[in-house]
């Protein structure tokens, strides 16, 4: 895909060519090609955020200062994969929620193959459930679980959810008390809804980067937007559980990075 990304053939090392040519192209042209090809890419600071206070305090759902007491353990259906979504669900599990981790039999969460210790850390305390999404009976069982869940955590883009016949709006219509935590790279709605995004490039989009001695931007830690978004999503879920208020929560990695970056900049000043 490198020739398509760069708009022409190249010779030599592809990474050198990408660095050389992208440095001479307008950022919108590079991003346009990348989005068309399904490549995760972002321009530094493209997500603009005003300064915002960030409350990352996490309280269990029965002790959030509202006086609301749950009569049952909140049930969480975790349809997410990789890092941010599983971390959100893991924090809910640690707070006492009953979490069911749903995976496809044919396409399980690949983070288990990449780093088994990390995968186990994010998913301990959850009840695993692998299903065949091609089976109408198993998909019906999944829908029944979604229609009775207190919290649903997803990390798929809208196109991916629709391919499974899943709609957050339809599900929350059937289950008005459900809290749907939709974690994506660039948002569940709008023109970027089907744009691919991961922790590193989404951090760049939000301006959350480090700088070397020559003021050249570089990645800060490993996929930093993922854990920050997982923590933020869990905090929002706890608040919604305490208020017993169903809602669809659109939590994107790039927006979270932008919020945190704005907060850091305000503290530095």
Secondary structure layout plus pairing:
Layout: H1 2-6, H2 14-22, H3 27-37, E1 75-78, H4 84-94, E2 98-104, H5 111-114, H6 116-123, E3 127-131, H7 136-146, E4 151-154, H8 158-163, H9 168-174, E5 179-184, H10 199-205, E6 210-211, E7 217-218, H11 225-243, E8 247-252, H12 253-268
Helix pairs in contact: 4-11, 10-12, 11-12
- Write out the strand line-up for the largest beta sheet, numbering strands in chain order: 3-2-1-4-5-8
CATH H-tier superfamily of the largest domain? Crotonobetainyl-coa:carnitine coa-transferase, domain 1
How helical, in percent, are the residues?
40-55%
CATH topology annotation of the largest domain: Rossmann fold
Mean pLDDT equals: 87
Strand count, sense and barrel status of the largest sheet are: 6 strands, parallel
Number of domains: 2
The fraction of residues in strands falls at 5-15%
Query: Which class best fits the helix and strand makeup?
Result: alpha/beta
**What is the CATH C-level name of the largest domain?**
Alpha Beta
Radius of gyration: 20 Å
Task: Count the DSSP helices.
Answer: 12
Low-confidence stretches: 51-60, 63-68
| N to C succession of SSEs | HHHEHEHHEHEHHEHEEHEH
Distance between the termini: 42 Å
Give the strand tally.
8
Going by CATH, the architecture of the largest domain would be 3-Layer(aba) Sandwich
Shape: globular
